[in-house]
């Protein structure tokens, strides 16, 4: 079993042109790229044909692993938004689009209704996504940060075009270890995003993002669970410089993450001794 493709999110580059973003990744050794920003801007669904062609030229040599959106399933127009981004993902050549679950509520009846609504939205677009060869993947984020909640949603929509994005940080801060997350959603993971953080009461969120290995998020444990479970999708570094301007620049963070992740890949049973495709 080969090690996963190692990718990185353009969220780490709030001010750079996509050409320069891609060049840094290629020079560092990454094999894939996750599109969240283009030229420092969040990606709208109506990119022009010229821009799409330019992006495809810019990222040549890197495998596009996902197109990230801010869509929340709880929104009334979620289905139409997803359909628009599916067209864009197809034009860009992205095999996955990332969406969020959104608000879930606290009362049992409300939660059940919102879970069903999310499943209905996903069910309504699943065949369209499947026909395009694209997976719509819901991230462990917002009210679905706990994999138990995301797993409850996914059990309502069993379809190969509907999956999960496992963000290393959010389930951990919700009290879930990697084994629990894999049990809940591991079979449906289409993309694994890695980041590290440590508790910090001076931060509004209660957490400070740090370089890989300098925090308390069990990223290596997450990778070990994925390897043991036979995961074959990409591992993507999500360095959130766009949202947290105080953290290190991508020129520092991207090589640091690459070096440590490739070292871990070489040590983890199931991946050890293999090379990236």
Please, could you describe this protein's structure?
With 277 residues, the protein is α/β, with parallel strands linked by helices. The protein has a single domain, classed as TIM Barrel (Alpha-Beta Barrel). It has helices at residues 18-28, 49-58, 78-92, 108-132, 147-154, 169-173, 178-185, 219-228, 250-267, and strands at 6-9, 32-35, 37-38, 41-42, 63-72, 96-100, 135-139, 162-167, 189-194, 196-199, 207-210, 235-237. Strands 1-2-5-6-7-8-9-12 form an eight-stranded parallel beta barrel, surrounded by four helices. It has a two-stranded antiparallel sheet with strand order 3-4. Strands 10-11 form a two-stranded antiparallel sheet. β10 and β11 form a beta hairpin.
Q: Layout of SSEs?
A:
Layout: E1 6-9, H1 18-28, E2 32-35, E3 37-38, E4 41-42, H2 49-58, E5 63-72, H3 78-92, E6 96-100, H4 108-132, E7 135-139, H5 147-154, E8 162-167, H6 169-173, H7 178-185, E9 189-194, E10 196-199, E11 207-210, H8 219-228, E12 235-237, H9 250-267
Parallel strand pairs: 1-2, 1-12, 2-5, 5-6, 6-7, 7-8, 8-9, 9-12
Antiparallel strand pairs: 3-4, 10-11
Short description:
The protein is of the alpha/beta class and about 280 residues long. It has helices at about 20-30, 50-60, 80-90, 110-130, 145-155, 170-175, 180-185, 220-230, 250-265, and strands spanning about 5-10, 30-35, 35-40, 40, 65-70, 95-100, 135-140, 160-165, 190-195, 195-200, 205-210, 235. Helix 5 packs parallel to helix 7.
């Amino acid at each position: 079993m080969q090690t996963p493709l190692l990718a990185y999110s353009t969220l780490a580059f709030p001010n750079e042109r996509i050409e320069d973003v891609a060049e840094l990744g290629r020079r560092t050794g990454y094999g894939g790229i996750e599109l969240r920003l283009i030229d420092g801007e969040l990606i709208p669904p109506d990119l022009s044909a010229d821009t799409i062609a330019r992006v495809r030229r810019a990222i040549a040599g890197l495998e596009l692993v996902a197109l990230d959106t801010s869509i929340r399933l709880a929104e009334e127009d979620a289905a139409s938004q997803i359909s628009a981004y599916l067209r864009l993902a197809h034009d860009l050549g992205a095999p996955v689009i990332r969406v969020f679950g959104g608000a879930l509520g606290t009362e049992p009846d409300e939660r059940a209704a919102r879970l069903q609504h999310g499943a209905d939205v996903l069910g309504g677009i699943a065949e369209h996504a499947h026909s395009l060869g694209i997976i719509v993947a819901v991230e462990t984020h917002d009210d679905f940060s706990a994999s138990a909640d995301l797993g409850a949603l996914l059990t309502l929509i069993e379809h190969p075009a509907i999956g999960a994005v496992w963000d290393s940080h959010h389930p951990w801060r919700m009290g879930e270890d990697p084994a629990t997350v894999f049990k809940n959603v591991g079979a449906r993971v289409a993309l694994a995003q890695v980041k590290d953080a440590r508790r910090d009461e001076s931060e509004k969120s209660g957490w400070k993002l740090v370089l890989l290995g300098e925090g308390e998020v069990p990223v290596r444990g997450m990778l070990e669970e994925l390897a043991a479970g036979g995961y074959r999708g990409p591992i993507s570094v999500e360095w959130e410089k766009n949202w947290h301007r105080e953290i290190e620049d991508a020129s520092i963070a991207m090589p640091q993450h690459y070096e440590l992740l490739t070292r871990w890949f070489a040590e983890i049973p199931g991946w050890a001794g293999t090379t990236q495709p």
